[in-house]
Predict the structure.
Amino acid sequence: MKRPKNKRYRVLVVYNQSGQLPQSAVDSISEEAVSQEVSAVTEAAREAGHTVAIFELENIVTDVPKIRRRRPDVIFNFCEGYRGSSRNEMHVAGIWEMLGIPYTGNPALTLGFAQNKVLSKQIFESRKISTPPYEVYTSEPRRSSLKYPLIAKPASEDASLGISHDAVVHNLEELQEKVQFLLRLYHQPVLVEKYIEGREFNIGILGNYPPKALPVSEIDFSALRKGEPHITSYEAKWIESHPMYRRTPSVCPAPIRSELRTKLKNVALQVYRLLNGRDYGRIDVRVNSAGKIFVLEYNPNPDISPDAGYAKGLKAAGIPYAEFVNLLIDLAYQRRPRD
């Protein structure tokens, strides 16, 4: 359903307060990047004629009454956590649901599924979707049943938090050191996966009934030096001054054969539907030398700033950024409670 001609909405762009993360100062870069998304979306929505206000969520108790008094038609949801914990992302979305205010992006339960990487992998396995073999540690490992090399990451974080350029380990000593470090820093279980040698792709998904896959994007590892792991680390994704950022650009559309492109899009759509993805999302995968696809994770509400990977997919699909923003607003408004 399209928005009636000249129909305008009251849009409240809500994001969580930055600067409260308990992790390192470097980790806060990804959270602070939300400000770029807020600015771009606000500008696009205002140009379309919507009445737009920005709200920084600081205290649920005092802020919820303020939000209700504003009576927004739609909340453009950029809340990726609350009070320094990304694990509260799903709970903030749940509050919008309880208030009966339609909001953009993935629903609360999907946000919870996606953030729990172990649960997501179990869901993938239940539908015979290939994902790298894995183990979960809550203390220092005595041994691993997986074949090295392995990659270690926090089990319930997003935005590549905890995935550093040295995340790939090659023996038990390195594994123990990395697991101990992540346990101390993130205070949560550590997910250890078999490192899949090969290519890495991202597939953006847009819309709902039916959702559509955007052009496939590939991480170009060709500029990496010998011995450097072919992974998208936190440094490669967020720190523009870091060498890994410059050496791992994304290419969209990816230079791949049509057969692989079709397979990647089909797997991505299968994951999106399986986790009840909504409005927009991104699926990250690896493909080994034999052409087998391994799903790494579903990224709900990915970075949609104009220079981010998702926006590259929109551009490759011929979708103007402003059209995308207004589509998300329209989709959310259609979910408003009916009298």
Notes: The mean pLDDT is 91.
